[in-house]
Structures are given as C-alpha cells and as structure tokens.
Amino acid sequence: MMAPHPLDRPVWSMLTGRQAHLAEGDARAVRIDRGYGPFGAAADRSGTAQGALAALVPADGELWIVEGERWPVPPGTREVKRAALAQMVAEGPPPEARPGEPAIIALGEADAAEMAGLADHARPGPWSSTTHRYGPFFGVREGGRLLAMAGQRMLMPGMAEVSGVATWEDCRGRGLARALIGHVMRAMTARGEQPFLHSYADNAGAIALYESLGFRIRREVHVLAIAAN
C-alpha cells in the first residue's frame, strides 16, 4: 500500500515535519503556534486523537482543519464552517518576470503592521500576529504605501505553499498579484522547492490566474473550522 502524499493531509504534514518547531500538542493531535494562525490536525479519526484535537481549540477562537477527505466534528466542539478547496501544484518552470513589472521588495518585521492591515482588508486566509514570520514575504510599495504582498506558509518535503496573496482594492487590476506570485515561485524554485497553493474551489477568477502561472489542480481538499461548545 502506497504511503499517503504529504499534501493529502497538509496541516498534519507541516506540523509533524518541516514546521514541527511551530507546533503545540503531542502525537495524538497538534496545532500551530497561535500567533501564526488557527490550523490544527489529529493523527487520525480515533476518539483519542479527536479528543486531543478538541482540547487544542481555543476558548475564544477557531481551529481550522484541512484534510483530503471531509473531517468529522470532534466531540465537544461545533462546526463554524466548511468549504472545499482546490489544491494546486506548479508544473514546469516558474514564469519569468514580465517587462514593466513593479519593483518587488522583501518584507520583514518593520512591515508587520502594514501587512496585517492589508490582510485584514483583502482576507487572503487566516492571519494572526506572527503570520508574517512563516517565511519570505514580498511586497510592492508606491509612495511609501504597501500596495500588495505575497509569501509562503506550509512547508512539505521539497515543496512550499504560496500564500498571503493580498492587494488593496483600489490597486487591483494592475498585475501586482501576478508579479508577486511569480516572484515567490521563482524564489521557491531556486531553493529546490515545488510551489503549491490552496484556493477556494468556487473562486474561478483566482484559479484561472493560478493556472496561467503554471499551477494545475491536484485534488480537492476540505477545510473545517471548529470552535468550542
């Protein structure tokens, strides 16, 4: 029997693998450091593992479970939302930078407040106080204002997730997201990592953009957000 692909259980894979240093929990269930976001996973569907996962749900927040198959609601918790995601993997070399693309800069701790404000506006996915520390983030500035950003989140063996793609509404339509995603992809490829990403399955516009950059849908995965009863 073939071992499951790390992307079939992405949160479990990241928090028991390359990003285990960000995990809290034990062999039954883990969740990411709360400053980074709400993601968690159980070792399996057993009552013991599900109970351990439920214990990691914050009293005043949510825990997000991302799995290849629909996941049951752990006892003692309640379902907040479910959604289907398109899991996409880049095929072939990353796109080359286009003539006239904006200058792209590295972002860091000094940019954290602006990054959080942009994430709150654009809602690229869960964002918390230290989400910007997942890894390299890049942005486009104009007149001192951060217009757009993109970076990485989950890390798998030989793979890295493009994430945090966000643009202020009045700056959209200028190709900033395309330029930033391409830049992130080239940085990942230079490190020997294959880019992947997740998009809500009903976001046809985003999926079309990702496909134009060389991503192809690998499979559908499911996100379940839960909260304490």
CATH fold annotation of the largest domain: Aminopeptidase
**What would you give as the CATH superfamily of the largest domain?**
Gcn5-related N-acetyltransferase (GNAT)
Return residue spans where pLDDT drops below 50 for at least 5 consecutive residues: none
Q: Could you tell me the mean pLDDT?
A: 97
Quickly name the level 1 CATH class of the largest domain: Alpha Beta
Biggest sheet architecture: 8 strands, mixed
Beta-strand residue fraction? 35-45%
Order of neighbouring strands in the sheet with most strands: 4-11-5-10-9-8-7-6
> What's the alpha carbon Rg, rounded to whole Å?
18 Å
Overall SS class: alpha+beta
Query: CA-to-CA gap between the ends?
Result: 38 Å
Shape: globular
Number of strands: 11
Domain count: the total is 2
Report the helical percentage.
Answer: 10-25%
Overview features:
alpha+beta; three-stranded antiparallel β-sheet; 11 strands; 35% strand
Can you offer a commentary on this structure?
This protein has 229 residues and is an alpha+beta fold. The protein folds into 2 domains: 83 residues, Aminopeptidase (3-Layer(aba) Sandwich), CATH 3.40.630; 134 residues, Gcn5-related N-acetyltransferase (GNAT) (Aminopeptidase, 3-Layer(aba) Sandwich), CATH 3.40.630. It is built from 5 helices and 11 strands; from the N terminus they run αβββαβββαβββαβαβ. It has an 8-stranded mixed β-sheet with strand order 4-11-5-10-9-8-7-6. A hairpin with a 2-residue loop joins strand 8 and strand 9. The N and C termini lie far apart (38 Å). The relative contact order is 0.21. The model has no long low-confidence stretch (mean pLDDT 97).
